[in-house]
From TrEMBL:
<feature type="domain" description="GyrI-like small molecule binding">
    <location>
        <begin position="18"/>
        <end position="198"/>
    </location>
</feature>
<dbReference type="InterPro" id="IPR011256">
    <property type="entry name" value="Reg_factor_effector_dom_sf"/>
</dbReference>
<dbReference type="InterPro" id="IPR029442">
    <property type="entry name" value="GyrI-like"/>
</dbReference>
<dbReference type="Pfam" id="PF06445">
    <property type="entry name" value="GyrI-like"/>
</dbReference>
<protein>
    <recommendedName>
        <fullName>GyrI-like small molecule binding domain-containing protein</fullName>
    </recommendedName>
</protein>
<dbReference type="InterPro" id="IPR008319">
    <property type="entry name" value="GyrI-like_CCH_Lin2189-like"/>
</dbReference>
């Protein structure tokens, strides 16, 4: 039976339009780091490279290499961890050229370093790209986190973050760092900005009441 994250992992990927506290388990991702405005071509190229690796892993049985423990699954959504450079943090208005980010696509537990390398080798032969050599395969464990579904343009995310921040203050929670995670549930090429769905999430810790 195919593993579909939209059905099996709703708590992680399909929150409501209100703040939700959860514990995010250890997960593994091929990831790429970058800097600059995500509306520019470089960001889209990095996303394309990540998806080419993710689909090469999922399609392995089709080309005769079924990893041990393999099961049918839906490719997970693109995620990104976002921050600003020191210069960007000091500017009075948001300068998207000062964004620093790490984009990633989660992988099932059966995926290993060796499997990722096999997939990347296949991509190198079929669709070579310089960014492919920058892909790293790592595990992350966010732990206690606050998340909420944002519906609308990316530029309106501050409104949703304000709701999350108010919830955190009311519930004795404190952000543990300045980065945040975004999980993209919509294809920006096919969905109008007003209907884009994005999970916004940041790590928190409980503080004394």
């Amino acid at each position: 039976m195919k593993h579909e994250w939209r059905k099996k992992e709703k708590d992680l990927y399909l929150p409501k339009e209100k703040p939700q506290l959860l514990t995010v388990p250890k997960q593994q991702f091929p990831m790429l780091e970058g800097k600059g405005d995500p509306n520019k071509a470089e960001f889209a190229e990095r996303v394309g490279v990540l998806y080419s690796v993710a689909y090469a892993i999922r399609m392995m049985p089709k080309w005769g290499t079924a990893p041990e423990g393999y099961f049918e699954y839906t490719v997970y959504p693109l995620e990104g961890i976002w921050d600003l450079t020191e210069k960007g943090r000091k500017e009075s208005t948001l300068n998207k050229d000062e964004f620093v980010y790490t984009i990633m696509i989660r992988q099932p537990e059966f995926v290993s370093d060796e499997i990722v390398e096999l997939a990347m080798e296949r991509v190198r032969k079929k669709n070579p790209h310089p960014y492919l050599e920058e892909v790293a395969f790592r595990s992350m464990e966010d732990g206690l986190s606050l998340q909420m579904l944002h519906v609308g343009p990316y530029d309106e995310e501050p409104k949703t973050f304000q709701i999350m921040d108010d919830f955190a203050e009311e519930n004795h929670l404190r952000r543990t760092d300045l980065t945040h995670r975004e999980i993209y549930l919509s294809d920006v090429r096919k969905v109008e900005p007003a209907k884009l769905k994005t999970v916004l999430r940041y790590k928190v810790e409980k503080i004394g009441e």
